[in-house]
Write a structure and sequence with these properties.
The protein is of the alpha/beta class. About 40% of the residues lie in helices and about 20% in strands. It has 2 domains: about 240 residues, Alpha/Beta hydrolase fold, catalytic domain (Rossmann fold), CATH 3.40.50; about 80 residues, Rna Polymerase Sigma Factor, Chain: A (Orthogonal Bundle). The chain is built from 10 helices and 12 strands. The chain has an 8-stranded mixed β-sheet with strand order 1-2-6-3-7-8-11-12, sandwiched between helices. Helix 3 packs antiparallel against helix 7 and helix 4 crosses helix 6. The radius of gyration is 20 Å and the shape is globular. This is Alpha/beta fold hydrolase. Pfam families: Abhydrolase_1 (PF00561).
């Protein structure tokens, strides 16, 4: 069930005050106050429905799953303006005023309003992982495990460049959501993945290549369930990602995070490239003991974090089993 928190007089990073921002969320698993809290941040076209009917992370979250709803309370917020509440009044038009830091602050306001002062884990993939990094910097003592997946603590020039292309398509195309999705899908996969899947096959009835049909269908599906203002906002947020902005260098900022940091990269990710994650891990090892690095091996690129569940489960199970074992001891 979709719940809502009213956030009043919220000041954005740029100094603008928003009189009202609705923050919707969903809870899964154990009741609040009765179990460790896991915060799940959704990706660009995702939402708070992470488990149960139509849950987009059902392979990881549920009864007996890696993040076991029998042992944890899972909370997933919707990024304000993502349109999941189907309320047109809550859509955001001035999207360039918002940053990932603003979203992370809003999420903390939501947690505090629910009397949550500490969480066992914050986990997210892609955009959700970037928000997780920022949440950990904003409240460095309130997260036990930070798990950013297929993401980065910063927007590289490559990410910024692709955000610009997406923004141009979204603001200038006659069919903006569908056309932007065509470009995005090729960032989320790899040539090897595409070539292996379609093998230059054609659909004789439609007189098109199957890869063309696949891309066009992805565009249509997203257009049917996603709002243009939401896409513009989520895309823009990706370029605002930088935990060092107005703070200091990466090592100094990241070293303040008390959480165990579990970086999960994808070896073929063409969007948030694994090389950047490896560099960060090697640098952080010099100042921080509780830092861990895992790499998904896949031909599927960025989207592997939504495909290679067996590998992801292998990386995550020790983190969440540790808490489950502690629960048994304290029972």
């Amino acid at each position: 069930m979709l719940e809502k928190i009213d956030v009043f007089n919220f000041t954005l990073e740029n100094g603008t005050t928003k009189p009202y921002l609705p923050l919707s969320y969903q809870l899964f698993g154990q009741p609040l106050g009765e179990a460790p809290i896991v915060v799940v941040n959704h990706a660009l076209t995702g939402n708070s429905n992470v488990s149960g009917e139509n849950g987009w992370w059902n392979d990881l979250i549920g009864e007996g799953k890696t993040i076991d709803t029998n042992f944890f309370t899972i909370i997933a917020f919707n990024i304000p303006g993502n349109g999941f509440d189907n309320n047109f009044r809550n859509l955001i038009s001035d999207y360039k005023q918002f940053t990932i830091r603003d979203i992370a602050n809003i999420f903390w306001e939501g947690l505090f309003s629910l009397d949550i002062s500490e969480v066992y884990a914050v986990i997210g993939g892609s955009l959700g992982g970037a928000i997780a990094w920022e949440m950990a910097v904003l409240q460095p003592n309130k997260i036990q495990n930070l798990i950013p997946i297929a993401t980065d603590w910063k927007a590289t020039d490559w990410v910024i460049a692709n955000v610009l292309i997406q923004d141009q398509i979204l603001n200038n195309s006659d069919d903006p959501i569908a056309d932007a999705r065509l470009h995005a899908m090729l960032l989320y996969r790899t040539p090897q993945s595409i070539n292996q899947r379609f093998k230059r096959a054609q659909n004789d009835r439609l007189a098109v290549f199957q890869i063309e049909n696949w891309l066009l269908n992805h565009g249509i599906k997203l257009k049917n369930r996603f709002r243009l203002s939401a896409y513009k906002l989520m895309n823009h947020l990706l370029k605002t990602n930088d935990i060092t902005r107005n703070r200091g260098d990466f090592l100094a900022v990241a070293n303040e995070i008390q959480a165990s940091i579990h970086i999960v990269a994808v070896d073929t990710d063409y969007f948030f490239i694994a090389h950047e994650n490896r560099k960060d891990f090697e640098a952080l090892k010099s100042v921080k003991d509780n830092i861990y690095y895992h790499e998904i091996e896949s031909i599927h690129g960025h989207d592997a974090f939504l495909i290679e569940y067996a590998q992801l489960e292998q990386f995550l199970k020790p983190i969440f089993n540790k808490q489950k074992q502690q629960n048994y001891v304290n029972a």
